[in-house]
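User: Structure please.
Assistant: Input sequence and predicted structure:
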Amino acid sequence: MTGELKVDVDPAEVGFDAARLKRIDRHFARYVDKGLLPGFLAVVSRHGRVAHLSAYGRRDVETDAPVETDTVWRIFSMTKPVTSVAAMMLVEEGLIDLTDPISRWLPEFAEPRVYVKGSALRPATDPATEPIRLWHLLTHTAGLTYGFLHSHPVDAIYREAGFEWGMPAGADLAECVRRWAALPLVFQPGSEWNYSVATDVLGRLVEVVSGKPLDEFFAERIFGPLGMTDTGFFTEDADRVATIYTPHPGTGQIVPAPAFDGWARSRPACLSGGGGLVSTAGDYRRFTQMLVRRGALDGVRLLGPRTVDLMASNHLPGRADLEEFGRPVFAESPLHGHGFGLGFSVLEDPVKAKTLSSAGEIAWGGAASTAFWVDHDEDLTVEFYTQLLPSSTYAIRPQLRQLVYQALVD
């Protein structure tokens, strides 16, 4: 049932050493005490019980407002798994298939063109030889990109079109998708992996196929059934929203990132299925608990178990290694040993990844250094919240994995 987020089991009862779990708190408190993070909240759950919960530091340093269990976080790309679940619900209903060309619902993608050579100002393109399909969107193999990546001429084309960290003023999701469809793809669909606006396009597909705006679909089909009362594209309780920070380029000390102040405080024109949600630790934990239970929670089933299993499989061609197949941008946590499933990364080889996690772990994070993972083998979910851009600033995610698994002693 929903309710206040709190520790509800002796860690030893679910296989944890309580003293070792406290290493999580000490480690990340050092970041806060040195002025490198504003604050953090970490949740470790096993067998459906909260074994460890730590909140430290400030959600807003300037007003001295503390991190609390009901703090509202901008979760950025932790929105992507939610949108992916929404799409797979429609697949289960027979309304769309993983192999369907998306142009069936989004005709603006009927004739995509692919960058071949040239500058951002004068790119040469060829027609796509393969249509963009639903599974391409779910796996970031569609050939789309992000303007903030700064790694390819097409990224610069996105920035020139008004897409870097946000969307053009006043443009709704349908308009953004129309504009993206007119830009070149980075590569032929299915041939590589590139982090991208693919999940935003997926959100628009959910709207068209379901006949509902994305926020309504989420509220009616996911958040309402799961009891996620604090999750949405904005919150009216602005005092609970954590401030976003970024490192000062000279000192590394955190400073506010005012460009993001307006985010989350009013309904946006564009409902970004790739990065637009805000949530609380208690709410998102319910989403991860649904995943670890293979699609159901507290008597509510969103997906069939086999659908979740399919989502948690590596869908890259030939089960390729993500670090080798794609164009990863996560220098703080290289993705050797990982593949990519339908909406999140999938750990294929813990040895290659140099991690204590279990093979089959699914995970993702947000631009402001939030993160989660789900380990079905250990019946374990972990979430971490802070607000520091970019997520590549520190190796928070691999450090957190090490600290969680070293405390698991059964």
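The chain has a mean pLDDT of 95.
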